[in-house]
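TASK: fixed-backbone design
INPUT:
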């Protein structure tokens, strides 16, 4: 059976869906691989949506909407948003960590200073917590005193900012991760600060990936 020709409207929808998915992925700091695993949409199929070369089925639109906790119409213009329906935005309490005791689970009660209410619509998947940035090593990217949202994960990719536990001092720091010839470097964004070399005499543990920060005026 011959494949049906896409209409100009279909092509327009493909571009709009691709733009929306890429914006959502970037703003929520989630990769296509993570979305594929969570939604069970095959990676190749999902990539077609992101590139604007294919239209998602209604079922896959629903899976993506559920993943991002938004309406189907926010992703795909083929679906109309029902008027006069106001979504109920739920909030969850995200812990703000203080000192992290050696050997304790990251989110042990004794490590938590307070809880911050966060709308679930704007949270990435997985377990999240906040850290308070201290000092100027990550300026101008992250100002001192900012509350930085972290998604808990044991590793990050190169050039991503991670929350890192300095296991000798039990202090958590925010640094950009670089690797070269098997050696990990904790890189400050502020050129006035010196990179930290990770090794046997300076062990660290990655706590998670920095997603975004908030700062009080």
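OUTPUT:
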């Amino acid at each position: 059976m011959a494949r049906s020709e896409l209409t100009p409207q279909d092509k327009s929808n493909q571009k709009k869906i691709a733009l929306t998915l890429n914006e959502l992925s970037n703003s929520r700091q989630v990769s296509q691989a993570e979305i594929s695993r969570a939604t069970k949409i095959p990676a190749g199929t999902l990539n077609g949506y992101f590139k604007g070369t294919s239209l998602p089925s209604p079922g896959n639109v629903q899976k993506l909407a559920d993943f991002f906790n938004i309406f189907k119409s926010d992703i795909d213009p083929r679906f109309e948003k029902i008027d006069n329906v106001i979504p109920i935005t739920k909030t969850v309490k995200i812990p703000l960590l203080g000192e992290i005791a050696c050997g304790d689970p990251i989110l042990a009660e004794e490590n938590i200073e307070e809880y911050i209410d966060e709308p679930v619509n704007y949270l990435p998947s997985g377990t999240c917590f906040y850290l308070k940035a201290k000092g100027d090593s990550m300026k101008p990217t992250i100002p001192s005193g900012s509350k930085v949202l972290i998604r808990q994960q044991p590793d990050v990719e190169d050039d991503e900012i991670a929350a890192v536990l300095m296991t000798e001092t039990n202090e958590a720091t925010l640094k950009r991760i670089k690797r070269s010839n098997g050696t990990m470097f904790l890189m400050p964004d502020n050129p006035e600060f010196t990179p930290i070399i990770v090794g046997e005499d300076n062990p660290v543990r990655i706590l998670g990936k920095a997603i975004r920060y908030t700062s009080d005026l």
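COMMENT: Residues 8-74 form a domain with the 434 Repressor (Amino-terminal Domain) fold (CATH 1.10.260.40).
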